[in-house]
Amino acid sequence: MVKIGVLALQGAVREHVECLAAPDTEVTIVKRTEQLEDLDGLVFPGGESTTMRRLIDKYDFFEPLKKFAESGKPVFGTCAGLILMSKEIAGEGEGHLELMDMVVERNAFGRQRESFETLMPVKDIGEDIQAVFIRAPLISEVGDNVEVLAKYGEEIVVARQGHLLACSFHPELTTDCRMHRYFATMVKEAKEQFATQAISS
Ligand code: GLN
């Protein structure tokens, strides 16, 4: 059993909770920093990254979230969640939590009415992952330690850096929860690794 939280300051929270639901996964809606202590993994949902950042500061989540990710516990960010994780935001300068070594461009696929849905291959996850893009960011640069898992045309849209996973689109707005199962497996593996380390130290 693993415990995965969904940060619930703003954005599409309930849809992630539904996609994560599985017999071996307990899902928590996170509204207070103390709840982080109990979790094995965390999801940053889509929404609006500037608003989310404001709420992160307002409710003193900044340091606890950084500490959570830096402890090696897996984090999965979708859309605005991906923006929160990036080291740099093109045209704006430094990022928010700066967890992943990459540069993002916000609203890179146009505005709300240019939202679209497609099927795309995501490495290690599936050949035909359902992806909904809504005012989505793209990843314009990645460091050597970041693995590109998917591109839409020339643009990087899914990336992984060890225990950190980020995607531009909204897998939670579809019935295809394979991205979430993949993340739950990352969480399970990290938890097992922590347990092994605890025994051998
Ligand atoms: N455009 C939004 C932002 O910059 C992200 C959109 C989304 O999460 N659907 O925060």
TrEMBL record:
Q: Which residues cross the membrane?
A: none
Q: What is the lineage of its organism?
A: Bacteria, Bacillati, Bacillota, Bacilli, Bacillales
Q: Which NCBIfam families match?
A: PLP_synth_Pdx2
Q: Which UniProt keywords apply?
A: Glutamine amidotransferase, Hydrolase, Lyase, Pyridoxal phosphate
What Pfam families does this protein map onto? Answer: SNO
Question: Catalytic activity annotated for this protein?
Answer: L-glutamine + H2O = L-glutamate + NH4(+); aldehydo-D-ribose 5-phosphate + D-glyceraldehyde 3-phosphate + L-glutamine = pyridoxal 5'-phosphate + L-glutamate + phosphate + 3 H2O + H(+)
Q: Which InterPro entries match?
A: Class_I_gatase-like, PdxT/SNO, PdxT/SNO_CS
Has keyword Hydrolase?
yes
Superkingdom, taxonomy of origin: Bacteria
The protein's gene is named: pdxT
Q: Which family does it belong to?
A: Belongs to the glutaminase PdxT/SNO family.
Q: Which SUPFAM superfamilies match?
A: Class I glutamine amidotransferase-like (SSF52317)
Its quaternary structure?
A: In the presence of PdxS, forms a dodecamer of heterodimers. Only shows activity in the heterodimer.
Identification of the protein by name: Pyridoxal 5'-phosphate synthase subunit PdxT
Per the entry, what this protein does is: Catalyzes the hydrolysis of glutamine to glutamate and ammonia as part of the biosynthesis of pyridoxal 5'-phosphate. The resulting ammonia molecule is channeled to the active site of PdxS.
- In this protein, the active site sits at C79 (nucleophile), H170 (charge relay system), E172 (charge relay system)
Q: So, what pathway does this thing act in?
A: Cofactor biosynthesis; pyridoxal 5'-phosphate biosynthesis
Its Enzyme Commission number?
Answer: 4.3.3.6, 3.5.1.2
Q: Which GO terms describe its molecular function?
A: glutaminase activity; pyridoxal 5'-phosphate synthase (glutamine hydrolysing) activity
- Which HAMAP family does the UniProt entry name for this protein? PdxT
- Binding residues annotated for L-glutamine, in chain numbering: G47, E48, S49, R106, I134, R135
